[in-house]
Amino acid sequence: MPVPLSLTVNGKKVSADVDSRTLLVDYLRNDLGLTGTHVGCDTGQCGACTVHLDGNAIKACTILAAQAQGGTVLTIEGLAAADGTMHPMQAAFKECHGLQCGFCTPGMVMSAIDLVNRHPKASEQTIREELEGNLCRCTGYHNIVKAVQLGASTMGK
Amino acid sequence: MGAADQGLVGASVRRKEDYRFLTGAGQYTDDVNPPNHTHAYFLRSPHAHAKIRKIDTAKAKTLPGVVAIFTGADLEGVNGLPCGWLITGTDGKPMNEPPHPVLAQGKVRHVGDQVALVIAETPDQAKDGAEAIVVDYETLPAVVNCVDALKAGAPQIHDGAPGNKCYTWALGDKAAVDAAFAKADHVAKLDIVNNRLIPNAIEPRAAVASYSRADDSYTLYVSNQNPHVERLLMTAFVLGLPEHKVRVIAPDVGGGFGSKIYLYAEETAMVWASKRVNRPIKWACERSESFLSDAHGRDHVTHVELACTKDGKFLAMRVHTIAAMGAYLSTFASCIPTILYATLLAGQYTTPVIYAEVTASFTNTAPVDAYRGAGRPEATYVVERIVHQAALDLGIAQDEIRRRNFIRTFPYQTPVALVYDTGNYDQTLDEAMKMANVKEFPARKAEAGKRGKLRGIGYASYIEACGIAPSNIAGALGARAGLFEAGEVRVHPTGSVTVFTGSHSHGQGHETTFAQVVAGRLGIPFENVDIVHGDTGRVPFGMGTYGSRSLAVGGTAIVKALDKIVAKGKKIAAHLLEAAETDIEFKDGKFSVAGTDRSKTFGEIALTAYVPHNYPLDKLEPGLNEMAFYDPTNFTFPAGTHICEVEIDPETGVVEVASFSACDDFGNIINPMIVEGQVHGGLTQGIGQALLENCVYDKETGQLLTGSYMDYAMPRADDVPSFKVGTKVTPCTHNPLGAKGCGEAGAIGAPAALMNAVHDALASSGVKYLDMPASPHRVWSAIQSAKQ
Amino acid sequence: MYAFELTRAKTVADAAAALAKSGGKALAGGQSLVGAMKLRLAQPGTLVDLSGIAELKGIRKDGDALVIGAMTRHAEVAVSSEVKSAIPVLAALAQGIGDRQVRNMGTLGGSIAHNDPAADWPAAVLGLGATVITNKRKIAADDFFKGMYETALAADEVMTAVSFPVPKKAAYIKFPNPASRFALVGVFVAQTANGVRVAVTGAAPSAFRSKPLEDALGKSFTADAAKAVKVDSKGLNADLHGSPEYRAHLIAVLASRAVTAAG
């Protein structure tokens, strides 16, 4: 069944009629061409699809696009400045080699920003616990933790 | 700029590839959307073993949006998927090689076996179409355990493999081993299970297949580690298509770990079907589907015996292993428990004689093939666990027993075929012990004891053979492919450089490390070097990335091409500088006449090559573009020691990794940051195997019980600590980079280090033996059993 | 997933009527329901979206009880100063549900209406002797959880809030399944106005109260008293991650740790 959808994505108002069963991740990837948000599993556990909805990190694969109706969505593509300068957390991941294949990375970065918003001075233990919803198979998390710590310090929180 | 950049080699240069990954601009296969594309969905067997009596697709074909449905019966003229390594058995006969059909032919042999390809306008319509296909199965009993599969009366999986045996193969001198055992003071023994794993790269497999009627050509985007191999196998061996009319592109790939080496049925069927429907076909494997259909790893059952003197000197080792192949032979499956396994059973030790016998069996499970380490984690686990046991039996300290047996003279011919070129095992053991602060372990153990916890420490001194491989040796051992690598260096008129490499980067950072090598050798800015990989339409034929081969083999191919560039540059410079070629030196990006200050920059030489006015055209072609194919003369032998410390809560069985120290010798290191990252990732996968991961099929029904992340425990950030990693360097003696490779080492050493630590911790509870994974339930149960 | 109609309800009455008319399911945070629909394990013909109903939100103190609206997200409970001052164990429990992304969407009402055998909220509802408030009636915790994925809610009944009586002391210890991180076993221990309550999740088809532990702790509210109880393994879940015996053992161990944590 088609449902009318209107929301703000990366600062831009968008609207469409979508099939009610359209997941938010499919709307972002297929309808808006924002392929930076990735699908890594089908049980809502890997976190590769993490985006922000109304300022909170959520898994775009486990909500219907319709559940974001009227909301504000921020994806990985919306983080850098208009001139391409990376967000402090993106820069921190590069500086600390917190990514290898890059597939979990958009979700990891979006999750990390939300983590720091909630825990500005998170300890290593807290960071590791708070990344429970983001799987990485490449990095062993060691440098991701460092990146989150660096991002926290440079995000001015 | 050039001189400064020569300091790049050995520097932790930040990666070129990161910007696109961090800004969501990576292009992974599922991001590719050709116009007018369709979606594929594979109908898979719900049974572990069954005959197919009938497939009725009539109703399914009429559903809205369904474009076409194909089954095995439609695939006329399509061969089975090939195995790339022929193992010859102890009876002198070739291994049993039953057919591996692209879509099931008359029978299904594991849950998830491909039965039909449904093509529709949307993914949901393709799924609806699949659900409407009626398959009449006659179910058969199934066998999922590699040992049970060989027993009399086990269900027969393939007509061409009686008793479900693929081969029995052996390596070593059995008579000499038996003689040595007869004289030994002590024989340590263990029965070991190397648990089955699912690689689980975070990007599931995906493919987009397009056919162009205009020029009868195909383009395949596929999440793969070796596009040329993929193309060759698919066109020449399976589909009978002209190789040059098929372009295979492995764009950004989200992790491979071996699971994306193989030629799989899905992309093969899609390429075939793309011509028939004359529209692009897109497929993205769902994760639970991936659990059923990706090649799995490990799955060995081993009995090992180590004969020693009472002083712990190793006299001989004998190993008997049964290894699962799964339902069908995957591309490299046969060589994993043989060539890549038994040849490492000497470890770092001077054990004079070794005999290994390996039987590979078919089981009603997903095919098994290489997964990070591919045979070497299995070998290291066997060796380091039996060495740990021998030390316990003889009352010798863990580090001491290793020292008493270390190889110290190189090159060293092992009794299991390989010749180690160089190494220093004392160095890495000493350093690891310092990093792990072994000295103060007793105090930490006592303190933990006061809190009711059990602390243990475990060692793994591993070695591996990688940088695969010398083609003639590989061929003699049964490889059906060469294992060289290709590198092409294209210098542009304005002096920038594009390098085409047959290696593939799916996380390893080659765009950065290879650029470091090139910029360093040519004395040009790092920013002026671009690395291109993953496209058969642009890159010369390479064998791809696996087996920690990219720097050692791919990097060397590039170095040899660079040597040709510099050699030609010298000729051009000699002409421009009116000097003899032998008087021209190349250093820091400048060609100069020896003993003078007359020189030309690399950029000036490049421009001259493409604007050849003042140029020896009678003797030299214009242009500056060279390539090399490099076939290595030996394997490389990274080695090191890993030390793991665990703390166990006996009330719950929870094992915490308190610390993990790794000191590795990878030869010369181009980018320490990237090397450490590879170690961190490998260690985490190794810890995953030892503590968390286990792929389990139901013994009766053959159903996959660990079918998703709900039941298959992937390591998360709070499952592992921050690691202590360090390196020592003994440069590889047979490649110009002196590089050994580093991608798999973590996964190779970690399981043994962790399990030796667990055994150490549990010793006081009376637990003598525990298999992986040391999950809380299994640890607690072992403690309870030991009490009785 | 299969196709479905989507209705957005503006009031509780709307929602109840839509559920009655369509025979469909209520959509709260969707973290369980959307997940099941993606795998084609659930196929409701209609979803009634509750997220727009203001009446279902909010946390407030009501005498000796804390009333949490059914659509309150776990993340909101975890940081709520109201919850932390009245019944801090609920904030800690909510903080341990799923992961941060799941907590930002998942709701109290959605969790207990779904009644996953390993969910955390049912242990708290049962452990505190809470009351589930719907558009039709009030249901005592002891009457609410019927079996695996089964509750006392009628198909057209809309849960509006849960009223948690403030305990004297309480704690919840969750032992996570290493794979799913759901509770392999979770034990909620409380000293309430009506005596000691011990609720267990993850160990059986549905959350249940452990009479042996309640009796032992009623006599002596100490960690040792809990550890000494031999919990019966009969009827407990058996799977790859734990035998019934292991779960039975963990119940006693976690109960004793909860007693210590309760202070």
Q: Main traits of this protein?
A:
A: 157 residues; alpha+beta; 5-stranded mixed β-sheet; 5 helices; C: 5-stranded antiparallel β-sheet; 4-stranded antiparallel β-sheet; 12 helices
Biggest β-sheet of chain B: count, sense, barrel?
Answer: 7 strands, mixed
The chain-level mean pLDDT of chain B equals 97
Q: What proportion of the residues of chain A is helical, as a percent range?
A: 25-40%
The low-pLDDT segments of chain A are: none
Low-confidence blocks of residues of chain B: 1-5
> What does the average pLDDT of chain A come to?
97
Broad structural category of chain A: alpha+beta
Report the count of strand segments of chain A: 5
Derived structural class of chain B = alpha+beta
Count of helices of chain A? Answer: 5
Distance between the termini of chain A: 44 Å
Tell me which protein chains meet in the greatest interface and how many residues each side has: A-B, 56 and 60 residues
Share of helix of chain B, binned: 25-40%
How would you briefly describe this protein structure?
With 157 residues, chain A is α+β, with helices and mostly antiparallel strands.
What can you tell me about this protein's structure?
The complex is a heterotrimer of chains A (157), B (788) and C (263). Chain A contains five helices and five strands, in the order E-E-H-E-E-E-H-H-H-H. In chain A, helix 2 runs antiparallel to helix 5. Chain B is built from 19 helices and 28 strands. The longest helix of chain B has 27 residues. Chain C has 263 residues and is α+β, with helices and mostly antiparallel strands. In chain C, the strands form four sheets. In chain C, strands 4-5-10-6-7 form a five-stranded antiparallel beta sheet. Chain C has a four-stranded antiparallel beta sheet with strand order 11-12-13-14, with helices on both faces. In chain C, a hairpin with a 2-residue loop joins strand 8 and strand 9. Chains in contact: A-B, A-C, B-C. At the A-B interface, helix 2, helix 3, helix 4 and helix 5 of A face helix 2 and helix 17 of B.
